[in-house]
Amino acid sequence: MTQLTHSHSLDSSLLVRDVAGDYRPANADEVLQAARRVLAEQMHGCEVLSSPQVVRDYLRVKLGTLEHEVFALIHLDSQNRVIEYVEMFRGTVCQTSVYPREVVKDALARNSAALLLVHNHPSGSTQPSRADEVLTQTLRAALALVEVRVLDHLIVAGSDILSMAERGLL
User: What are phi and psi of 148, to 5 degrees?
Assistant: First the structure.
């Protein structure tokens, strides 16, 4: 009979198995990576209108701590279920370039019926800029030509998320 003893410091630790098969406490990056995987699995196939919290939790973990801007798409099928999350463009601390042609191409390639536009503000403010508003309208118009609806544009800043649709900016 083998007796396991636990030191107090390990009681609350997540454990991971190393290549030798031994367990050790997970480091912060491994915990975050596991959280992203779990949240991505929960989000894939979920119906965004009935599961907005799952989407928001995923985005907080995915984008909330980045020090550079990322513009991403959440592709949705005709039932508003998540097909895929795709990071389209990466920028600097305060801006990123978004190309409507590439967004339309990506939506068509994944046979999306609708999209959620997503980007982060490393500054910590969810307030949409005038450029954010213009970009949203430009993408809505371009995507409407190929019958892809834009349901929302979400801005992530740390743990805060602003919905442009909820603010009446869509």
Answer: -115, 120
**Which among 80, 90, 71 is positioned nearest to 156, based on CA atoms?**
71
How confident is the model at residue 48, as a pLDDT? 64
Residue 8 per-residue DSSP state:
G
Closest CA to 96 of 146, 141, 155: 155
CB atoms within 10 A of CB 161: 21
Chain segment 131-150, per-residue pLDDT in tens:
999 999 999 999 999 999 99
CA distance 94 to 70: 10
Q: Any residues with CB less than 8 A from the CB of 146 and at least 6 apart, and which?
A: 104, 107, 108
* Positive or negative: CA dihedral 115, 116, 121, 122: negative
More confident residue, 139 or 58: 139
Taking domain 47-163, whether its CATH number is 3.40.50.150 is answered by no
- Structural contact between residues 136 and 164, judged by C-beta atoms closer than 8 angstroms: yes
Side-chain half-sphere exposure of 109, counting CA atoms within 13 A? 9
Question: Where is 12: in which H helix or E strand?
Answer: none
> Tell me: the pLDDT tens digits for 78-88?
999 889 999 99
pLDDT at position 10 over 50: no
